[in-house]
């Protein structure tokens, strides 16, 4: 019997070691399956656990037992884990060398990294073993799923009084539970013999063992040795993983030694033990009540956990569905945006090609505009040159007018001389009969000369006409070319504006497509990140869901098992009430109650740890939400930056488009102004060309007339001098007794013929070409003139005088009429001036002036205030504006007067030219009729 007692002493030591390990560690929540009930996990209250030192232990062997109920509800033999200084000196050396090595949290280890053990008896498991396995399983679950912080939270019972009370309860309960287990196993072994024999029924065994159970003890010792070998193997694995648990193991070993001493003392004093059991019965009843309350709380917590899990599962499934929908929508939007992007790229390429062609045509148009501007400059230079020529010609015309006045005076003097000659002719008419034949000859010669001069005049007129026609054709060609260039330029401008408008529209569409594509890509990126985060979280949620399901299943199994245990406990309580004298039944009941109390304490601690775990999970969720919020804020800030940059770029684009519009409008204005200037210059050029042609013809005519008049006057003077000399000679001859009559008649005839030639030369502009041909014959044929009829000559002279009087009267009438017309024109000009002054300033202005005013109003300043309804400059006052208006009014009046005077001058010049042409034509007609 000594060997069983020693084994009993070792068995409580082992059981006490397991209970101390569980009491010093944090208790996880209940509800784990029996498959993982014996998993050893690091304690939550201490990260560094010390290993057992052989110096402190001495020669004793710490034994750890773990109970496990398999899935088939079969009990496995007990495995005793031993660690002795003799069997593992290397491990002890390692433990001695590293007494305070830290132990990392084993949350990522798989369940295979832990060592499981089975219970020791083959019979049904006691509540103590089941609760121990459940607590170890909950420890394993908590170590696998919860992360231990660097500074672990202390236990709620971590006070001096609570520690002492819990240690006393655990010592007593662990000792009694170990004794009960050993006795139940021994009774199970001796049950067949006791039933067959019927002996020793009701007699209490000595120290929990019968006297005839030595054979059973041998079998039990072998079983224990076998399980000890298995536990040694398991403890080797555990020692490899738990080398860093030295501090906790040292404390456990010290407590184990003290408890071993106390256990030896209590084995010697069973009576004290029985009294302690009686004292604890009341405590057990209270603990049963607490157990019921804790079970109710556990059921409530289980229901709330189920509801929370179902709600969380629904939320996760709904979120996953939403994310899948968003992912599909994002994928479809991505495909559509890719197609839009491809279309936009194609349109952008087309627009780029159109833009290049438009830029090319714009460059050509600009070159054409430059050429037109150069041509305008050349025309302006030509205008200046023509203006200079016009001024020179105007001076020459003035000079010729003065010479004409001198010639008129000379003509008047000659007319006086002609009158004197006519009077003399009357007195000498009788003497001209002899010169009649000569006069006929001279008349025939004069007719021939007139025909020649007429032919020359026709040739000159043909030349002038051809020159004018060539000039007109040239001007018409220039006008046609100018019209063609204008039409081409307008077409080019229209095409350019259309293409620019199309380019703007395409550019806006391209910008909108780019913006929409960028927004869709940003949304797609955000959806991708969200989807990635949700996909990353999905396996974790699924793992947690499976773990919670396993926990629920384990809790259900544990609840069913505990219900069965509760029924067994009630049956045992009934049996204890019937057989109060049987100590074993009372011990079993007390052991069950103590194990339930320990389980309840573990459940309380586990529930608190679950609360802490849930708090940690909520903290993780809050941190995750904060992280997502910060990411969303960062994305929002990036989006704000992108929108700000987009608005800035859009403002720049609008500014550039506005500048482009201003440039194009200015270009159009410049082109319109240049066209107007070109038209004005062309009109002025045409007017000047016509005026120059008229003036040239007039100058040539006046010059030719002057030359002819000079020649005629010289010829007349020569003729008259010759006639005078001849007359003097004849007078001398008459005085000397010669033929006075013939000489006088000859002189009178020659003078009359000279006077006739003079009148014909003054009226005709064609006979001036050949004055010598007229004077020559008159001189040469003085002696050969036949006698002239005086009546004919007198009639002709009278007729000519009447015609001259009529012309003078007509000239006087025309001068009076011209004066009246000039006065009427002046009156009308005054009326027009007053009417124009009464009109508004912008009524008669051109479009170019309106454009110039709009440009000035945009530029700002004093002039902008004049052309707008509101003052654009603060420096503009009422006095200043009135002064500006007065000056502008003076300038306007001055320009109007200049224009009116220029118009009057042009009208008078045209009327004078027309009058001179009309005066030139009637004598020629008279010559033609003769």
From TrEMBL:
Coiled-coil region(s): 790-831
Recorded GO CC terms: trans-Golgi network
Source species taxonomy: Eukaryota, Metazoa, Chordata, Craniata, Vertebrata
Keywords in alphabetical order: Coiled coil
Feature: compositional bias, Acidic residues: 1-11
Protein name: Chromosome 10 open reading frame 118
Signal peptide: none
Top-rank taxon: Eukaryota
Biased composition (Basic and acidic residues): 733-743
Biased composition (Polar residues): 97-156, 756-765
Chain segments carrying region Disordered: 1-159, 733-781
GO biological process, one term: vesicle cytoskeletal trafficking
Organism: Nothobranchius kuhntae (Beira killifish)
InterPro entries in UniProt: CCDC186
């Amino acid at each position: 019997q000594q060997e069983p007692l020693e084994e009993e002493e070792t068995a409580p030591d082992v059981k006490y070691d397991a209970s101390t390990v569980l009491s010093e560690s944090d208790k996880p929540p209940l509800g784990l399956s029996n498959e993982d009930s014996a998993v050893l996990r690091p304690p939550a209250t201490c990260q560094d656990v010390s290993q057992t030192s052989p110096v402190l232990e001495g020669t004793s062997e710490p034994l750890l037992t773990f109970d496990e109920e398999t899935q088939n509800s079969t009990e496995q033999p007990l495995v005793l884990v031993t660690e002795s200084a003799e069997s593992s000196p290397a491990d002890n050396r390692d433990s001695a060398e590293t007494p305070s090595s830290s132990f990392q949290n084993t949350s990522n280890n798989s369940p295979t990294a832990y060592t499981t053990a089975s219970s020791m008896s083959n019979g049904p498991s006691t509540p103590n073993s089941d609760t121990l396995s459940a607590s170890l399983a909950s420890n394993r679950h908590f170590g696998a799923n919860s992360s231990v912080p660097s500074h672990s939270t202390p236990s709620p019972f971590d006070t001096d009084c609570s520690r002492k009370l819990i240690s006393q309860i655990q010592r007593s309960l662990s000792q009694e539970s170990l004794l009960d287990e050993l006795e139940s196993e021994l009774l199970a072994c001796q049950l067949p013999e006791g039933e067959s024999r019927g002996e020793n029924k009701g007699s209490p065994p000595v120290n929990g063992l019968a006297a005839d159970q030595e054979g059973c003890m041998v079998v039990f010792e072998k079983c224990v040795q076998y399980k000890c070998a298995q536990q040694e193997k398991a403890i080797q694995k555990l020692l490899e993983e738990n080398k860093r648990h030295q501090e906790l193991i040292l404390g456990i070993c010290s407590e184990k030694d003290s408890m071993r001493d106390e256990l030896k003392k209590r084995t010697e004093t069973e009576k004290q033990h029985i009294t302690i059991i009686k004292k604890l019965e009341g405590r057990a009843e209270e603990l049963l009540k607490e157990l019921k309350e804790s079970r109710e709380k556990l059921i409530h917590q289980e229901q709330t956990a189920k509801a929370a899990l179902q709600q969380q599962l629904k939320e996760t499934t709904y979120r996953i569905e939403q994310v899948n929908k968003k992912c599909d929508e994002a994928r479809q939007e991505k495909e559509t945006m890719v197609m839009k992007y491809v279309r936009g790229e194609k349109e952008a390429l087309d627009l780029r090609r159109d833009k290049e062609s438009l830029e090319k045509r714009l460059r050509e148009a600009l070159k054409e505009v430059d050429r037109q501007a150069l041509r305008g400059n050349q025309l302006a230079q030509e205008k200046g040159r023509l203006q200079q020529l016009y001024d020179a010609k105007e001076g020459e015309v003035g000079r010729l007018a003065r010479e004409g006045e001198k010639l008129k005076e000379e003509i008047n003097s000659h007319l006086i001389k002609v009158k004197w000659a006519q009077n003399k002719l009357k007195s000498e008419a009788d003497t001209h009969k002899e010169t009649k034949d000569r006069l006929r000859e001279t008349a025939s010669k004069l007719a021939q000369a007139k025909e020649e001069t007429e032919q020359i005049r026709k040739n000159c007129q043909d030349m002038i006409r051809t020159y004018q026609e060539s000039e007109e054709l040239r001007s018409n060609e220039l006008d046609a070319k100018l019209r063609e260039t204008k039409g081409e330029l307008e077409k080019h401008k229209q095409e350019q504006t259309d293409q620019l408008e199309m380019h703007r529209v395409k550019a806006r569409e391209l910008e909108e497509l780019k913006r929409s594509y960028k927004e869709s890509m940003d949304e797609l990126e955000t959806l991708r990140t969200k989807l990635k985060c949700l996909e990353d979280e999905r396996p974790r949620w699924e793992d947690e869901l499976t773990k919670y399901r396993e926990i629920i299943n384990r809790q259900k199994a544990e609840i069913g098992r505990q219900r069965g245990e509760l029924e067994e406990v009630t049956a045992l309580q009934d049996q204890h009430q019937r057989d109060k004298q049987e100590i074993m039944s009372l011990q079993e009941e007390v052991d069950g109650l103590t194990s339930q109390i320990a389980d309840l304490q573990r459940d309380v601690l586990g529930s608190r740890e679950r609360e802490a775990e849930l708090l940690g999970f909520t903290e993780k969720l809050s941190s995750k939400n904060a992280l997502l919020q910060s990411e969303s804020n960062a994305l929002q800030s990036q989006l704000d930056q992108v929108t700000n940059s987009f608005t800035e770029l859009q403002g720049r684009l609008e500014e550039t488009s506005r500048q482009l519009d201003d440039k194009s409008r200015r270009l159009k204005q410049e082109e319109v102004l240049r066209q107007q200037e070109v038209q004005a210059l062309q009109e002025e050029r045409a007017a000047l060309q016509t005026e120059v042609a008229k003036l040239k013809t007039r100058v040539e005519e006046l010059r030719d007339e002057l030359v002819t008049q000079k020649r005629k006057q010289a010829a007349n003077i020569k003729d008259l001098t010759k006639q005078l000399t001849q007359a003097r000679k004849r007078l001398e001859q008459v005085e000397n007794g010669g033929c006075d009559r013939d000489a006088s008649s000859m002189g009178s005839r020659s003078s009359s013929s000279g006077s006739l030639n003079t009148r014909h030369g003054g009226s005709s502009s064609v006979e001036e070409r050949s004055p010598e041909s007229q004077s020559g014959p008159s001189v040469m044929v003085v002696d050969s003139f036949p006698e002239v009829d005086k009546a004919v000559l007198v009639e002709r002279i009278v007729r000519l005088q009447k015609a001259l009087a009529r012309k003078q009267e007509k000239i006087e009438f025309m001068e009076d009429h011209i004066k009246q017309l000039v006065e009427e024109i002046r009156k009308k000009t005054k009326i027009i001036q007053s009417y124009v002054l009464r009109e508004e300033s912008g009524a008669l202005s051109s479009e170019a002036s309106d454009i110039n005013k709009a440009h000035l109003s945009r530029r700002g300043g004093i002039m902008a205030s004049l052309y707008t309804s509101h003052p654009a400059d603060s420096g503009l006052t009422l006095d200043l504006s009135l002064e500006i208006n007065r000056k502008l009014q003076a300038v306007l009046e001055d320009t109007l007067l200049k224009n009116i005077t220029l118009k009057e001058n042009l009208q008078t010049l045209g009327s004078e030219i027309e009058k001179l042409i009309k005066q030139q034509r009637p004598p020629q007609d008279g010559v033609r009729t003769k």
